[in-house]
């Protein structure tokens, strides 16, 4: 399975949770960014494969939503041409510390490829940066091995 396809699946799950509607799991209202803001470190990390909150303090409603994402993941993967077994890990850090909603999506596949992608806004869109020629481009995915707890690597100078 191509890594980009797995990243697209992860983006859809994270965007569904970030939207507050949870349409991937059926209508399930939630406010992950509000809960992240009230969490001690300002983030909530969700492990979509295990269906649990890994970091941050979450309500029972958000914990139930995370569990439901793990339940529907096999069918959602199948609908998108993948299998759950293609993932080694799939997690998203919802960060309420930024000016607008921000998510760091980390995807690791069975081939050992691991990446982190930054998204901002609602709906979630890739962060845009200037390239070396001054053009606005999507910020490239980073190899996740060099990431910190919030998903930003130490080489970022932004």
How would you sum up this structure, described in words?
This protein is α+β, with helices and mostly antiparallel strands and 158 residues long. Strands 1, 2, 3, 4, 5, 6 and 9 form a seven-stranded antiparallel beta sheet that branches. The chain has a two-stranded antiparallel ribbon with strand order 7-8. The chain is globular, with a radius of gyration of 15 Å. The protein starts with a helix and ends in a 15-residue tail after the last strand.
Sum up the structure in keywords.
158 residues, 3 helices, seven-stranded antiparallel sheet, alpha+beta, two-stranded antiparallel sheet, single chain
Short note summarizing the structure:
It contains three helices and nine strands, in the order ααββαβββββββ. The chain is α+β, with helices and mostly antiparallel strands and 158 residues long.
């Amino acid at each position: 399975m191509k890594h980009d396809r797995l990243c697209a699946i992860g983006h859809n799950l994270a965007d569904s949770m970030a939207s507050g509607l949870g349409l991937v799991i059926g209508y399930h209202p939630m406010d992950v960014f509000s809960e992240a803001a009230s969490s001690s470190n300002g983030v909530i990390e969700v492990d979509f494969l295990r269906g649990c909150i890994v970091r941050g303090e979450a309500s029972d409603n958000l914990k139930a939503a995370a569990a439901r994402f793990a339940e529907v993941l096999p069918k959602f993967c199948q609908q998108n041409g993948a299998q759950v077994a293609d993932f080694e890990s799939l997690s998203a850090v919802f960060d309420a510390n930024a000016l607008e909603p921000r998510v760091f999506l980390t995807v690791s596949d069975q081939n050992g490829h691991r990446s982190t992608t930054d998204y901002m806004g609602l709906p979630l869109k890739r962060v845009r940066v200037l390239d070396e020629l001054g053009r606005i481009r999507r910020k490239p995915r980073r190899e996740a091995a060099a990431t910190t707890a919030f998903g930003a690597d130490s080489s970022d100078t932004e």
